[in-house]
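From the pipeline queue, job 12 of 40. The input is one protein chain; the requested action is below.

Action: predict structure.
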Amino acid sequence: MKFNKKLMFLLSIFCLILCSFPSLSLAGKTFKVGVLAKRGKPKAMEKWSAHMKYLSAKTGHDFILVPLAFDEIFSSVSLRKIDFILTNPGFFVVLHKKFGVKAIASLVNYRQGMPLNRFGGVIFTRNDSSIEKSRDLRETSFMCVKMTSFGGAQMAFKHFLDRGINPFEDFRKLLEGGTHDAVVYAVRDGIVEAGTVRSDTLERMAAEGKIRLKDFRIIDRVKDSFPFIHSTVLYPEWPFASLKFTNPEIVQAVSQALRAMKPNDQAARRAKIAGWSAPLNYRPVSECLRAVKNAP
């Protein structure tokens, strides 16, 4: 009996020691964060690399950025090539349903001193175009980013459907640009008559000296307090999500680190965001996707 008590005591001490060093099981492991490269992979590296340094410093583990094209998202998750993913809400709701991906934080954008946790789609044409409203787009050439782009396609598709326009049947051509920047250039250069990108794209490209806002006309522009140009209703911002198999300890550490980020942190400044919040409700995104999928 005394031996058993001593053994139990030693086991208890051993367990306490292990609990005191929970990171031992993660020692030497590198965590990969997949990021949807909506403006191309070089731009994604420029924008999000500082986040990897931030997470490494805050958690004591190494993080690597993996920029992903639209057609690399599902394979990267299904084949477990990454541990976390930052992607558009449309991809997220599908990944959540199919693979159990879980949102641990939501992006808080930043514009004109305002933190923003919603974004919309922008439908636009050249300023010298005869197109004024959505109804004028029938039998025109139209470009989206990718059919799977939430802010650069699906928001606008839902907007059109609500107005009796079927984007899959009523355009003369429906093309994909591949990146948001490519869509903007295609409209500017007259390759297509109109296009759609996510809100903040036009303003960011103008700030970078790549375009002039006055060269474009916004279709169905919404005039409200939201500081970015937009045509559609607003939806919750991008989620930062963990994959189902990712170690719960590191998931918690990353979640806490993201939510602790301040607007003046280098990572936030490089990404031009205010920081991160608790995960938002992505049900409106699911409803949008359902409407687009069931389009006649």
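Job complete. Residues 2-20 form the longest helix (19 residues).
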